[in-house]
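Case study B.
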Amino acid sequence: MMRIRRFQPSDLTRVTDIEAHSFMEGAPGLYVAVYRMQGEGFFVAEVDGEVAGYVVAALAEDGEGRIFSVAVDPRHRRRGIARVLLNRAFEFYRGHRILSVCLEVRQGNLHAQALYRDFGFSVVGLIPGYYSDGEDALVMRRRLDPGPPEGLSARKIAAS
Ligand SMILES: CC(C)(COP(=O)(O)OP(=O)(O)OC[C@H]1O[C@@H](n2cnc3c(N)ncnc32)[C@H](O)[C@@H]1OP(=O)(O)O)[C@@H](O)C(=O)NCCC(=O)NCCS
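Model:
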């Protein structure tokens, strides 16, 4: 059984382990800092009681959302976990009335790009040599609908 919940400090070992299997970069203590600064949008997917993946839906100071990171344990990939995590991230962004979400992804990471395209992201820029090994980053962005105005329920809008 899978469930999505907020990251808690006791998840740190699992998250760091998944990070190590997923990314070339990383820094000791990175996710402790992420939890302190962006804990509200830091979600994990738990499968049968074990953390199998995570997403960090960060809020940037300019009011934009930024998917800081999404990763799934290699043993649990291709089962839709990243999709569920990204859906939760977008629910979080909608709750914060965020209208635009961006992210960076390695130019060679075609699997992740396919996933992001599926979620409505498109490439809006390139940052040369963004990663520590010199690989370029693609910048991808997706706009979000503003949704119903504050105080108006969907039913009221449908009836109006
Ligand atoms: C990218 C990643 C998060 C996907 O996680 P996942 O749980 O396996 O993804 P899902 O099962 O939800 O797949 C969703 C879609 O992504 C794409 N995708 C994911 N993995 C893929 C692969 N190995 N080959 C081709 N397409 C792939 C597909 O479009 C897939 O949809 P489909 O299964 O209906 O074809 C995971 O592979 C990962 O952790 N990679 C390393 C870290 C990383 O690259 N993170 C993203 C960059 S920040």
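The chain is about 30% helix and 30% strand. The remaining cases will be described in the next quarterly update.
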